[in-house]
## 1
Amino acid sequence: MLHEKPHGTINFIFCSDSYILEMNRHFLRHDYCTDVITFDYSNFYKNRVTGDIFISIDTVRSNAVEFCAVSFEEELLRVMAHGVLHLLGYNDHTTDEKFYMHEMEDNAIKLYKDF
């Protein structure tokens, strides 16, 4: 169970900037590149945590260097956790939500490293 929700299938699709840009334009009507796009299918699968998480490896790599000064692997873990948190119903629209999301990403990375 993930946060008291039964889990289903979570697919991680690793792609390029150009691919995720097209996804962002087509499905979300956003004309910019991003590191992650999450498609939640939980409503179709008896409220099981289920979805597709598209991750731009290009953006993850550049963000690790430019903004975070962390390794590619750590930034990738953060983005993967971020996508799963969206599937669990968390948002990052407000400053408070972003702060809380970042804390949960940190906790997920720590759990992974301790495992």
Note: The chain is about 50% helix and 20% strand.
## 2
Amino acid sequence: MKIKNKKVSILGTIYKIEYRTEQEDPILSDCFGCVTDEFNMIVIDNLRLDPKWKDETDLYINSRIKKTLRHEVIHAFLKESGLDHSANSVDNWAKNEEMVDWLALQSPKIFKVYKELKCL
């Protein structure tokens, strides 16, 4: 999987997706990716350039990068929907990592069923 920076529209807002290393962006020392609030940017750890991951297979690295990208895109959709700041007295439910992980992990399966049922 060749990795290149790109732009994508999320609910009408353009987000830049950048693949960086932990050395280029220290925020990646604690996570595989993040959404910036200020710059409408999704930053994903380019694991194939990180010496800590040199012994991992391409299959694993590609899978990890795709999972991280799906996760961060869900965060961006929730942000653009205004749900990350208006949780109706529930403590940041739209920023809850467990919920975002569930959506990011299950969405390919959900889309497969939608496709099979022709209801997309």
Note: The helical segments are 58-80, 97-117.
## 3
Amino acid sequence: MSESRGKTIRNLVNSKINRILKSQNEPMVKSELAELRKGIGGIPGDRPELWWSVFEDFPEQYMSDNDTPSKEEWSFYIALTLFAMHQQGHDVEKEPMHVEGIPFGQAVRRLAPPGDEDALARVRRRFNIVATSSDISELSYHLRGIIQLMRSAGIPLDYGLLADNLYHYQFPERVSRVRLKWGQDFYRRNANEESNKKKAQQ
């Protein structure tokens, strides 16, 4: 059940962001992204001006039935608000910061230029801080800093996949699995670079 819920949240985020990116109504897009940015670091439901962005078409069975946001609401909300921050300063048509197929670990690795060991060490330290977050609130806080770096560098990310990761991170028994995937993706790109480098030298 929870596995399918993670995939559903992933699809919901992809659908929502793709609608924003493909919209021809530029003023509305700018307004929605600006409102979503105001929600960064907040709690789902706290800002009435975001209700329509967060809850419109959101499955009712995934909504909280008490005064605490559900895991689905948290992952959806964090992904959307971080995307809005990430997209700031980039043209939604020419430079989308949501690109499906780029997992979080791989995107983080791109922050370090190939061959720059000092930069790689700095990125690795930041990545470790994110990956050792104790709960969803701390994870959201540390993600903010690393997404700001991606925004400055123009490095895109798959926000649907990130939302799936965020959902599963909220289950103590699944945190290690999420961390494993992040680590694999971070170093998989490094391995690919070494392979490409060897091919170029042949």
Note: The chain has one domain: 2-201.
